[in-house]
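Quick illustration for those who missed Monday's session on complexes.
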Amino acid sequence: MHASLIVSVQSNSSVAKYRQIAEQIAGQISDGTLLPGDRLPPIRILSEQLSVNSATIVKAYESLQKQSLVTKIPGSGVYVGSDPAQRPDERKVRSEFDDDELYLDDEIDLMQKGTIVIGDDAINFATSTPTSDMFPVAPFKEAIDTVLDRDGGRAFEYDESNGYLPLRESICTMLNEVYAVRSTPERLQIISGAQQGIDIAAKALLDPGDCVLVEDPTYTGALAVFKSRGARIVSVPMEQDGIDLVHLEKSLQYYCPKVLYLMPDYQNPTTCSYSEEKRSAVIAAARRHACYIIEDDFLSDLSFNASSYRPLKSYDDPADERVIHIKSFSKLLMPGLRIGFLTAPRSLSRDILQAKHLTDISSAGLIQRAFDLYLRSGVWETHLSQMCRRYHGRQQQLFRSLEEHLQQIDLPPRPTGGFNLWLPLPQGISASALYRDAAAKGVLCTPGNVFRAGRRDFDDHIRLSIAAADEQQIERGIVLLSQVIGDHLKQRTRSDFLSPML
Ligand SMILES: Cc1ncc(COP(=O)(O)O)c(C=O)c1O
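Prediction with pyridoxal-5'-phosphate bound:
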């Protein structure tokens, strides 16, 4: 069977027909519609379908071959990928990008090295960390004082590697009552933040060469972990209601991954949440293909309506568990606490515990004890509802400002929670160029390429985070951003006008 292709040819275009065809096929390879190993239609069939000369198709396929996007196997056909002769289970699955591509994009380098100088009054839509004025310092101080009076030096001993037992008990109660996740203190693992959770799950599960499927775009901190384990990373496109299931199924069949890394709620960076159907479907797919899901639940509590979804973990079948649920308190409490927890399938508990022990022996005892008291005092629920109200207000301001000042942009649907917005840019505007010019005006945003997981570079999107920007800053920041976008649109129009003469 050859892959079905949707390709068209415009006779009145100035672009040669073979190039039109090659570019459309390359686009479908890049966005994952065509996967490695897919056979392209035979030359005669495609030439008849498009009413073009067969030499045009030959030239199109040759051009794709020169770009190493397809391989011709004499007597068999033309296949997507550079090594299609091997069977999927024998194939060395290649990472979709080279090592350097992930982090050394100029613009990320600029951000990390701070080469772009930003004034103190800069508006920061790039960070996804709340500002310290939002931290509940007073109740936490009280909890720490109580722990020190109660436990003295014991608070500074090594705790058990899986965590301070009373904290595991209180988290278990919360998991059962609030998230419909059945667990027991024995099965919970306290972690020093979600990043560590991803790291120890990867240590427990992955050997060099194993394949990990990730959403595209995705959180780069997770990509870095998988790459550090020598994993091969393959991306699956995101849709508005979660991962693309058709593409996921093809990739599961083809790559036989060990791990699927997902953020089902307010995904970073798209802020899309999985529908109920997709939640059940990904679990079923993981069971069919015997792979594990790392569920990064970094933000599900930040919901603006009562009908938020349950974590994937609550859909897991106790007889065939597939989900490693990782929950962090960084974004809604205080990132510097470095606290979170992980619930793994029973069969993985031992390996997870070993990985945690190897990583840092145990999370800080004083913090675990204070956090336990904090959770038991009921202050957490009050703090959480304050944070939800505050961020909802900011999101409403963000949309008001965008609707007023950025009418050139088709706004995405309003997320029902979270603090990011994945904003598509007008056609022809580059996110990295916009990032630089906006930063020079004192507004920071994150260019889409930072979240790239595969071939698609996302230079047509920016991520705006309102985690650290209040209502006034949001309004001022969007006004400035709209001026920069306006300048880029003028430049684009000028170059569109000039290009035919060049
Ligand atoms: C999606 C996602 N997962 C995990 C983390 C890491 O969180 P933590 O501070 O809990 O380690 C982040 C941090 O930005 C994140 O965006």
